[in-house]
Amino acid sequence: MDHAEVLALYDREMRREARPDGPGTRIERTGTVVRQTGPAHGWNGVLWSGLDEAGADAAIAEQIAHFTGLGREFEWKVYGHDRPADLGKRLVAAGFTAEPWEALMVAETAAVPHDTPAPEGVRLLPVTDAAGVGLVVEVHEQAFGDDGSRLRQTLLDQLAAAPDAVVAVVAVADGAPVSAARMELPAGAAFAGLWGGGTVPGWRGRGIYRALVAHRARIAAERGYPYLHVDAMADSRPILERLGFARLTTTTPYVYVP
Question: Whole-structure pTM over 0.70, yes or no?
Answer without folding.
Answer: yes
